[in-house]
Amino acid sequence: PTLIRAFAPFRDRAQLVIIGDGPNRQQLESLAPEADFPGMLAEDDLLAWYNRIDILVLPSFQEAYGAVTSEALMAGAKVIVSRTAGSADLVREGENGFLVDPTDEAGLTERIGRLLDGVGTARPLTLRENLHPYRFADCAGKLTDFLGGL
Q1: Tell me: the pLDDT tens digits for 55-86?
Q2: Please, which residues bridge with residue 82 across strands?
Q3: Cα–Cα distance list, 61 to 65, 91, 104, 121 (Å)
Q4: Sign of torsion over alpha carbons 135, 72, 79, 68
Q5: Cα–Cα distance measured from residue 6 to residue 59, given in angstroms and rounded to the nearest whole number
Q6: Contact 88, 82 (CB under 8 A)
């Protein structure tokens, strides 16, 4: 509900899409009838959404890791992630997104607005820059070096 309220000022310039399912879905749908609720998605369907979005917002109160953050960054989307999410370490404040207190509705609204201000209208579907701060080859090399030193 905090995200829906925080997003309200932007309804005329952006579309809110809530992916997933759970016991609160019906309540959320009633709070935001103009939002898209495609449900639980996986594989190609989920990848298609990552390539369509400009911003991913993950304002979880509790999130062990949140692979969605990593996946969205690799697709070139900016992110707004709860400071309590395990994936918060992927966020480079102001560069690839922002960290938020999940209870701070005003702060969430402000950061959504900042990122939306940087998004053009009707952009063509193109390959975007990978915004993930870590590269597989770099991490694999560090692991290999570490294991070689044992």
Answers
A1: 999 998 888 877 899 999 988 999 999 999 99
A2: 100
A3: 12, 17, 11, 31
A4: negative
A5: 11
A6: yes
Q: What is the CA radius of gyration of the chain?
A: 16
pLDDT digits (tens, 9 = 90+) for 88-139: 999 999 999 999 999 999 999 999 999 999 886 656 656 677 777 777 677 7
- Is the pTM for the entire model greater than 0.70? yes
Distance CA(93)–CA(37), nearest Å, equals 28
Both tokens of 75, joined, read: 């697709």
What are the structure tokens assigned to 141, written together?
Answer: 């090399």
List Cβ neighbours of 38 (8 Å cut-off, separation of 6 or more).
Answer: 17, 19, 45, 49
Scan for tokens 């509790």, then name that residue. Answer: 62
d(CA 20, CA 57) in angstroms, rounded, equals 13
Specify which residues 39 forms β-bridges with. 19
- With contact defined as beta carbons under 8 Å apart, do 59 and 87 qualify? no
Q: How many Cβ atoms from other residues are within 10 Å of residue 19's Cβ?
A: 17
d(CA 22, CA 145): 42
73 within 8 A of 96, measured Cβ to Cβ: yes
